[in-house]
UniProtKB/TrEMBL annotation:
Residues 32-56 are annotated as: Disordered. This is Uncharacterized protein.
Length: 56
């Protein structure tokens, strides 16, 4: 039997393959609960009597 010819693999190529595998796993994993920001209170309307009137 003949020996298979082995080709050298660059480290950059291995890094790309690894990054693709990590990205694929991240996209395939089920999404967890979304960390939503707490709801902000609505701006309260200001009544006319609450607004200070400048001295005339």
């Amino acid at each position: 039997m003949e020996k298979a010819e082995r080709r050298p693999v660059s480290l950059a190529g291995l890094r790309l393959i690894g990054a693709g595998a990590v990205l694929g796993l991240a996209l395939a994993a089920p999404a967890g609960p979304v960390q939503a920001a707490p709801p902000r209170p609505d701006a309260t309307p200001v009544a006319e009597q609450d607004v200070p009137q400048p001295d005339r």
